[in-house]
């Protein structure tokens, strides 16, 4: 590390020390691929020996590219780590970004203080773009990105539209409303008549759209309060919501939960109450991630290809950055299909 | 966004457009705290209107600081997201970094290709330092960080020592060997005589040290092959390992698993074999994260304060960067104590 007060060594000094060209040092320091490992090692050695501090300045000034993309998840770490949805989506995103030699940086947000810091980070030119997941209606992140012109793609349909005259936001989602309709029609087909719903947070479009699909299938314009409970997309929330629904009289004979985690919580509550699934209460979830197939009984659910959605998000952003390969993906929102998967819980 | 071929607008142009000083623009663009929200908004508006692309160049050239720290986890996302250990450690790290207005960037590594890209990212001056978790013996990350002089703190005792004459690596760990000794002595105290061990990957010091503690308590210099099975710190690995151990004759009357996830997998296998815990086989885990208390039966385990370890790692790194507040933390490895927590599984 350079000492305070000492003139920092120049790129030229590193080149002379390593016995390579200035261009080679620049390529190693700027992380340009294609420098032989042996040369790269020699430059690294000289960098260390002289205490040259490489930084992104030179590269950013020339290319205005950092080679990194932030994935911002507006949820506390406890939730991000507990829901396989995020792991799957990150896997898809990371896979596509890696294929374009772009580094994924995961940024989690919890409290108000975090927003200020993340705002400054996103405004600081450290990343070429951002993918934003799990936003809630009033989330200030989109405005932050727009204010500094940071190319951004959203996971899930945003709950706002672009300002007049501006292009709308880019996003990837499934057809949540149609998926929910399929789930509830399936329960109707099985002869269920008191079908309850456990929703996610209704300030998220995924939760609101799934509730709308539930209402569509039942031909209702608004829910029966005795058959609606709000969870928070967590297993514990599903447990609590199911207990609320069972307190009603008569209890429901089926429940559509807005994701698999809440459905698994509902299964636990039903078991604790000595109720049989599906004989007494049929249960349908949403997502079809690992836990759906492993739960007891295995869960009927609505499949969305979460990993593929992550890949599509990354592709949209790469397209927006002018880095897409092959046939150009249209720069427009993508809605992927949802498909009912019937297992033993219904 | 600036158009190709157009001369990018200057900081001065933004200042003139916003009607503020150049210094104010610079502070907003560089993310320096303390600019009034109203001024910040005005500058942001001008930045967007002119298509000025702020980047980290100016700031990095002046301060040589980016305000960001990378947390690099050398595990695939499936493992990082399945083990609450990482969520807890990240929570501790994020909490301390946030208190120093430093952004945490999570970087996951899976295959060989990822290493090359992460190497270039770490060498590119995008972050002020790195925290590296869950390294395996032959991991090239430490050498990468050293080659570019990136200040680094490790989670868990590294399996290598520094080069001769250099200071050793900075790290935070628990006393894994002592924790394992406590676990196995407890099983001996309960009258168990055929105590098996399920280890994590033995190219990680945490796994190797816990095996050594097991041997210490039993007064052995090497394990009985019939009583040792290797897991991979996952629940599925624990399930498989327990099945292997039960195939031996006579089967063990106790098992010490190297973490709670493997212990929970072992519980599942024992249940599937119709064996009672602890009557037939006592089980002890390691970590004492949430799942230990919720498992059936609740798990006797060795508690390490994982979140606090994360905080200590962040503090060491901040100290190394000259950013620590208050009484200076000595820049030396920290070993936190391990403590047996007895529950129903033993």
Describe this structure in words.
Two copies of one chain form a homodimer. In chain A, the strands form three sheets. Chain A has a six-stranded parallel beta sheet with strand order 2-1-3-4-5-11, sandwiched between helices. A four-stranded parallel beta sheet of chain A has the order 7-6-8-9, sandwiched between helices. With about 350 residues, chain A is of the alpha/beta class. Helix content of chain A is about 45%, strand content about 15%. In chain A, helix 9 (about 175-190) packs parallel to helix 10 (about 205-220). The model of chain A is unreliable at about 1-5 and about 55-60 (pLDDT under 50). The first copy, chain A, has three domains: about 10-65, 434 Repressor (Amino-terminal Domain); about 70-175 and about 305-335, Response regulator (Rossmann fold), CATH 3.40.50; about 175-305, Rossmann fold (3-Layer(aba) Sandwich). Chain A is built from 14 helices and twelve strands. The longest helix of chain A is centred in the N-terminal third of the chain and has 16 residues, at about 85-100. The radius of gyration of chain A is 25 Å and the shape is elongated. Chains A and B meet through helix 3, helix 4, helix 5, helix 6 and strand 2 of A and helix 3, helix 4, helix 5, helix 6 and strand 2 of B.
